[in-house]
Design a protein that fits this description.
heterodimer, A: alpha/beta, 3-stranded mixed sheet, B: alpha/beta, 9-stranded mixed sheet, about 20% helix
């Protein structure tokens, strides 16, 4: 299975009935394809919509936060950017899922700039990780072998101590006050391989096989 | 009745070195005809405030690609390679602002507030040089209001009074910018006799001129 699909499928299991969820660009967007319809999860996009639906033929009127033409589901609504970020910052979004370049032992996140190389900007990410009730990081475990889960982030931060859960193709890691807890490991890998691919110290107590993979 | 203008009239409202807010999110809700009209004048050295840098050939990005902009205040610039190139050539100064903060700074200017207090950006480079204020035991950044000389709005339908409603996700920053600028020009796709008062998002006293055209 493609590593991005593994990550997306696993994250989709984190949503509870009626959750209001914001999905970032990249792997997070793919999570939408694996959400159980019975859960009635509602998706919010920061450009001003609750109830965004599947992508569509291009109309000029409705895009998602990645600028792609999309649809609105029954019950949905539109609003301006101040309202959108009141929803986000005000703690009304249950889960935000976003990608990252680095995450560290404290749950600090770096995702918006590689100084001197790439400066895409933070967009809505800084508000989302500060405001959402739960922050899930969706990313590959390493960047071509170089660990991305670090003792301390080296890149400029998106936010200090805001990540709650890290989901990679190798493992599921929960961020708690005392550090990073390894909860689940993809059966294609051993716990040792996960430790090898992670710079930060992992707290290992009761590891189970990664959920959602057999789907 | 609101004053309706033609594209060529825009020369009367723009001048070198002025600050312009441009509505839209990745060009969705940006006033393409007004942007073309600005390009048809000789104005340059503009300070542009927009959610993002648009695309090289679409939205506010066209002003940037044409070298008319000396300062850009935005949350995201990753979709327009011209922004990075001009930054490297020291021809464009970019100030990156978290999207929710940018929305609130513009809203604050229009609402007569001396700024806003936000948790977004705390303990990141965004906080550098800014005042931290503690309220009810929690730390916030003081972010100052942002206003501008001119607003160029898009994505709207007007009535003959100049009231505006917006289409789909094209609302985004437009209603906020309508209240934060000395002069406001709205590009609308359609003019109806009178909008249902319940549907009006931007009330006509905030709109100075209307250009009819485009989608």
């Amino acid at each position: 299975m493609d590593e991005k699909v593994i990550i997306a499928k696993r994250i989709a299991l984190e949503f509870k009935k009626g959750y209001l969820v914001n999905l970032g660009i990249g792997i997070p967007t793919m999570v939408a394809d694996y959400i159980d319809h019975d859960q009635e999860v509602v998706l919010q996009c920061e450009n001003g919509i609750i109830g965004i639906g599947p992508l569509s033929e291009c109309t000029t009127e409705l895009v998602n936060a990645g600028g792609l033409c999309a649809t609105i589901l029954p019950g949905g609504s539109f609003f301006d950017s101040a309202t959108s970020f009141s929803i986000i910052r005000g703690g009304h979004v249950d889960v935000t899922v976003l990608g990252a370049l680095e995450v560290d032992s404290d749950g600090s996140i770096a995702s918006w700039i590689i100084p001197g190389k790439k400066v895409p900007g933070m967009g809505g990410a800084m508000d989302l990780v500060v405001g959402a009730k739960r922050v899930i990081i969706a990313m590959t475990h390493t960047s071509k072998g170089t660990p991305k889960i670090l003792k301390k982030c080296t890149l400029p931060l998106t936010a200090y101590k805001q990540a709650n859960l890290i989901v990679t193709e190798m493992a599921v890691i929960e961020v708690l006050e005392d550090g990073l807890h390894l909860l689940e490991v993809n059966p294609e890998f051993t716990i040792d391989q996960v430790i090898q691919a992670t710079e930060a110290k992992l707290i290992i107590d009761n590891v189970i096989p990664m959920k959602g993979i057999e789907l | 009745m609101k004053e309706f203008i033609q594209s060529k009239d825009i020369a009367n409202y723009v001048k070198n070195g002025m600050s312009i807010m441009v509505g839209g999110f990745l060009s969705n809700g940006s006033p393409e005809n007004l942007i073309t009209a600005v390009l048809d004048t000789n104005v340059t050295d503009l300070t542009i405030i927009c959610n993002d840098g648009g695309y090289e050939d679409k939205g506010v990005g066209r002003l940037i690609s044409a070298g008319r902009v000396s300062t850009l205040i935005a949350s995201h610039i990753g979709t327009n390679p011209a922004v990075g190139r001009l930054m490297q050539e020291h021809k464009l100064l970019v100030r990156l602002v978290p999207q929710g903060t940018l929305a609130e700074q513009i809203r604050a200017a229009g609402a007569g507030l001396g700024g806003i207090l936000t948790p977004t950006g705390m303990k990141t480079v965004v906080a550098e040089g800014k005042q931290v204020i503690t309220v009810q035991g929690k730390d916030y950044l003081l972010e100052e209001p942002i206003k501008a000389d001119l607003a160029l709005l898009g994505g709207a339908i007007a009535d003959e009074y100049g009231n505006l409603r917006y289409r789909g996700t094209m609302r985004n920053f437009n209603p906020l910018m309508a209240m934060a600028c000395d002069t406001v020009i709205a590009e609308v796709s359609e003019v109806v006799k009178m909008l249902d008062p319940e549907m009006v998002v931007t009330a006509h006293p905030f709109v100075d001129y209307i250009l009819v055209g485009g989608k």
